[in-house]
Amino acid sequence: MCITDITKDGENMILQIDFNSDEAIYIQLRNQIIIGIATETIKEGDPLPSVRQMADNIGINMHTVNKAYSVLKQEGFVKLDRRKGAVVALDVDKMRVLDEMRRDLSVVLARGICKNVTCDEVHQLVDEIFMLFSRGQKEE
């Protein structure tokens, strides 16, 4: 497990990358950035570190970072600017997000049902996780 403290323009962003995981590193990086946005560690308009800076700090190939940034762009979390690099810019398309969540949750819930996870346990887990990510939004 690599816990990296990335600095961009004086701001810190902590990423956890597990080099022993079966999950691709670019997906881990993408997920960590999405969690950073959800917890408001990374805010709308914030530039992400350059591809080179991110790769050097984590100790990975620049192509891996570039792929993570490209996926984030496709998913509407960042825009790529020639001068500023990757900048957090949320594409608010609620229906698309709900469709993606439905698809992703279907598999997760099916796995839970196969392991005898109850509906109440799922609701409690969802409430816990949702509260973690929505704290900053309620303060505004």
UniProtKB/TrEMBL annotation:
Entries under SUPFAM superfamilies matching the protein: Winged helix' DNA-binding domain
Residue ranges occupied by any HTH gntR-type domain in the UniProt entry: 23-91
Organism: Hungatella effluvii
Keywords, comma-separated and alphabetical: DNA-binding, Transcription, Transcription regulation
Name recorded for this polypeptide: DNA-binding transcriptional regulator YhcF (GntR family)
Keyword DNA-binding: yes
Annotated CDD domains: WHTH_GntR (cd07377)
GO molecular function, one term: DNA binding
InterPro entries given in the database record: Tscrpt_reg_HTH_GntR, WH-like_DNA-bd_sf, WH_DNA-bd_sf
Coiled-coil annotated residue ranges, if any: none
